[in-house]
């Protein structure tokens, strides 16, 4: 365990916000994690403040320095747990890079995660908000996870129902916020692929690529091309993907809005609700391509807020507050932030 003091987090969050952690350490094993947590006891260093777990830092916005201990998860390893006629169960340590895990599955011809290609971040955060893209969510391939309970100092296992997965939600995001540290996730991969190509522009992209034979590798390649064409690469422009969730509203309300704004984009959820495209709402309010200082709204995807270089976390946060207010005023729709805000 090597605890650093006043450590810059700029390279550890994809927004590239320049804040520091009072204390910072990486952990490579659960034993090291326990040592780090012991360090953060009030009696040891008179430090009675927050412990924050960091994966790839791709879904987090720091608005100020962290007066506590930031722990970077470096747990590594992928293990085959069991196999039956239809499935292979892989247990991945929480510090594994998510996209590398997807590539690993594709190489082994294991299906289920190909639509989730190129999502930044680590395995450990994948259940946190039930990551999703192009018609697939983590819950579709999730089997179980192990998490260290900070107060009880023991590992607890969570099954699918325990996680209470929803759209960009799980028990870890709100109900048990900051109580558990996910140490590994076990995924149930399919030996026989079920291709998901109906969502978004996947089929169109496959046609453009001249691909007629479907395979998980081809779907991954199409998803990667679509994502690269519209989402900013954090290595070039700081961002955390979609800053807001797509709001879900009653169908009746959607039909009223459709009457007033015929080009509004919504997707029927078949449960009496419609999911609105927040990017459309934000664009209609005139924010797309907006920039004030180094904080902005991406020119190709209005749902993504960006840091062009030196923006402070507060400037991004204030911009998000202004966007919420204008969408509320124009459409009477409440946007919710999707990114984890560290206030
Ligand atoms: P971090 O940002 O490090 O952490 C996120 C939150 O989880 C924090 O609150 C942190 O404390 C907590 N956390 C992290 N690890 C653990 C752990 N082991 N145990 C407990 N808590 C933990 N998301 C999608 O769902 N779909 C997308 O299509 C998508 N596209 C994106 C595109 C871009 C360009 C970017 C930058 C982001 C995108 N995201 C997307 C968001 C992000 O990639 C995911 O939310 C990802 O799972 C975050 O992983 P991370 O390791 O970087 O988490
Ligand atoms: N749109 C606009 N203007 C914009 C952006 C979008 O009008 O500036 C409209 C378009 O009509 C477009 C529709 O919104 O067809 C949907 O846009 P897109 O396909 O880009 O997807 P999204 O709804 O903006 C969601 C997820 C993404 C995920 C993609 C693909 C959320 C909050 N975001 O974005 O996830 O990759 O779908 O499945 O659900 C993330 O969570 O960080 C993320 C990037």
Secondary structure elements and pairings:
Blueprint: E1 4-8, E2 20-27, H1 30-39, H2 42-45, E3 51-54, E4 60-62, E5 66-73, E6 78-83, E7 87-93, H3 98-107, E8 132-133, E9 136-137, E10 142-149, E11 154-159, E12 180-190, H4 202-208, H5 216-230, E13 238-242, E14 248-250, H6 251-260, E15 266-268, E16 273-276, H7 278-284, E17 291-292, E18 295-297, E19 304-307, H8 313-331, E20 340-342
Parallel strand pairs: 2-5, 3-5, 4-20
Antiparallel strand pairs: 1-2, 6-7, 7-12, 8-9, 10-11, 10-12, 13-19, 14-16, 15-16, 17-18, 18-19
Helix pairs in contact: 4-5
This protein binds flavin-adenine dinucleotide and uridine-diphosphate-2(N-acetylglucosaminyl) butyric acid (EPU).
The end-to-end distance, rounded to whole angstroms, is 27 Å
Which descriptor suits the 3D outline?
globular
Q: N-to-C SSE series?
A: EEHHEEEEEHEEEEEHHEEHEEHEEEHE
In the CATH classification, which architecture of the largest domain applies? 2-Layer Sandwich
Residue fraction in strands: 25-35%
Please write the CATH class name of the largest domain.
Alpha Beta
Main sheet makeup: 5 strands, antiparallel
Under CATH, the topology of the largest domain can be stated as: Uridine Diphospho-n-acetylenolpyruvylglucosamine Reductase, domain 3
Low-confidence stretches: none
Largest sheet, spatial ordering of strands: 6-7-12-10-11
The level of helicity is 10-25%
| Number of contiguous helices | 8
Q: In angstroms, what is the radius of gyration?
A: 21 Å
Small molecules in complex: flavin-adenine dinucleotide, uridine-diphosphate-2(N-acetylglucosaminyl) butyric acid
Provide the number of structural domains: 3
Please state the structural category: alpha+beta
What's the count of strands? 20
Mean of the pLDDT scores?
Answer: 95
């Amino acid at each position: 365990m090597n605890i650093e003091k006043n450590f810059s987090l700029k390279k550890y969050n994809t927004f590239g916000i320049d804040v520091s952690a009072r204390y910072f350490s990486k952990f490579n094993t659960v034993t090291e994690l326990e040592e780090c947590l012991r360090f953060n006891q009030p009696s040891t260093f008179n430090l009675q403040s927050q412990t924050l777990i960091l994966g790839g830092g791709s879904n987090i916005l720091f608005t100020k320095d962290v007066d506590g201990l930031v722990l970077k998860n470096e747990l590594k390893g992928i293990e085959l747990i069991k196999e039956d006629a239809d499935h292979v169960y892989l247990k991945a340590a929480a510090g594994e890079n998510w996209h590398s895990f997807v590539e690993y599955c594709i190489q082994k011809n294991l299906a289920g995660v190909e639509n989730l290609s190129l999502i930044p971040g680590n395995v450990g955060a994948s259940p946190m908000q039930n990551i999703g893209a192009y018609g697939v969510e983590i819950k579709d391939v999730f089997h179980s996870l192990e998490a260290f309970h900070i107060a009880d100092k023991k590992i607890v296992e969570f099954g699918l129902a325990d996680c209470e997965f929803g759209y960009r939600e799980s028990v870890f995001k709100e109900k048990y916020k900051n109580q558990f540290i996910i140490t590994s996730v076990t995924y149930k991969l399919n030996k026989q692929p079920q291709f998901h190509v109906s969502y978004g522009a996947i089929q169109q992209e496959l046609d453009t690529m001249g691909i007629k034979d479907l395979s998980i590798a081809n779907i991954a390649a199409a998803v990667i091309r679509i994502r690269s064409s519209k989402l900013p690469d954090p290595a070039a422009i700081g961002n955390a993907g979609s800053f807001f969730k797509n709001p879900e509203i009653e169908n009746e309300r959607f039909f009223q809005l459709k009457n007033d704004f015929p080009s509004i984009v919504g997707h029927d959820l078949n449960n009496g609700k419609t999911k609105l495209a927040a990017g459309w709402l934000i664009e209609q309010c005139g924010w797309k391509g907006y920039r004030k200082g180094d904080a902005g709204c991406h020119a190709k995807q209005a749902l993504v807020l960006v840091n062009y270089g030196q923006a402070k976390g507060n400037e991004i946060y204030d911009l998000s507050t202004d966007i919420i207010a204008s969408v509320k005023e124009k459409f009477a729709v409440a946007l919710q932030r999707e990114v984890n805000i560290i206030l």
